[in-house]
């Protein structure tokens, strides 16, 4: 125990925080299957792309609304208000994820549209209630930069495990021998993952220690919370904007490319079931870097590491675009090798990405005098989710322009399959460039500036 009677920060905190992202990803991991489900199994075709844009309107209201609601909440909870919201969201996520995959392919078009919109809106609401306060917790568990880097790295571990398990197993279950999706199995898998996610959240809640919240005293005479002012502060917060732009770039390319990658393996490499194993294998560099993240951050700094990672990704994606990736075993090997290098760059960023936002919350306090954890993180989450939604929608429009036909399932023409091969490489390159711009040119908390900010915030705390 430390002198302030908080449990000393250690592996228990890191594992618990990782379990939270594992819970989130038990719900989120299937989102990459959503486009294939609704275009190939349900038959919505291009309508899905349009509807996906429509539901982002709910995101525009949902994330900042819940974030501001959490910041404005002055109710005295038994432990912590963030943990209370996470608990409520985790209950809804038990079934909410499955609502996005209700298997009624024979339903009329209007009914399918209602099912999709209603299912997505309900899932998105519960996901936000759990995910926004979960992200805000990082800045409250510890104020030490090395501890935050450890939490961010372990969150990446939780995210990786939450993605790798479904990624490796689900393609073998939900695709038949002709590489066509079996929709009923997706629905059942989503229910099982909802239960597993709930268990992970409860483990996190039970083992989380809040150490910083007690140092941030609520002034009863402070001005009434103003969400527009908070949004203005966010846009002036260069670290938050830079980290958010990098995340948007990553998701626009990576999430947007998920459907194209599936079609690539369905129709170019003619093996949809192995797609998950290939993606899991490409995560080896991320797994290898994660244990080193804490020491590397202390030695080099978060921004410096992320910029190096984005350069690695740019090189890998250029190679993926220009090398002869042929529709055979040789081409797949080249594809995998390029993905390994790209994964190293993505892995470096992802292991510290959440620590970047923890520092951005402190930056908001440093420059504006208010922390606003909920709003800063919820706006970051909103733009991430906008990219996660807009990416697949826009890419799907491009795919249809390149000849993709959802009704053909995994039997696209060779010309369409080849188009997917170049589209995937171009999307990944776009992600890498956006990451470099956001982290290298906009994010301004390098190692020296971060040390000065932490010192000044510490002096302010002492004076109080």
Q: How would you sum up this structure in a few lines?
A:
This protein is mainly α. Helices cover 77% and strands 0% of the residues.
What's the arrangement of secondary structure elements?
Blueprint: H1 11-28, H2 31-41, H3 46-72, H4 81-96, H5 109-141, H6 145-174, H7 183-206, H8 227-236, H9 238-254, H10 256-268, H11 275-281, H12 284-289, H13 293-300, H14 302-322, H15 329-368, H16 373-401, H17 414-442, H18 447-463
Helix pairs in contact: 1-5, 1-6, 1-7, 3-5, 3-16, 4-5, 4-7, 5-15, 5-16, 6-11, 6-13, 6-15, 9-15, 9-16, 9-17, 10-16, 10-17, 13-14, 14-15, 14-17, 15-16, 15-18
Description of the molecule:
This protein has a single domain (13-209, 224-463), classed as Up-down Bundle (Growth Hormone, Chain: A). The chain is built from 18 helices and no strands. The protein has helices at 11-28, 31-41, 46-72, 81-96, 109-141, 145-174, 183-206, 227-236, 238-254, 256-268, 275-281, 284-289, 293-300, 302-322, 329-368, 373-401, 414-442, 447-463. It has 464 residues and is an all-alpha fold. The protein is globular, with a radius of gyration of 22 Å. 77% of the residues lie in helices and 0% in strands.
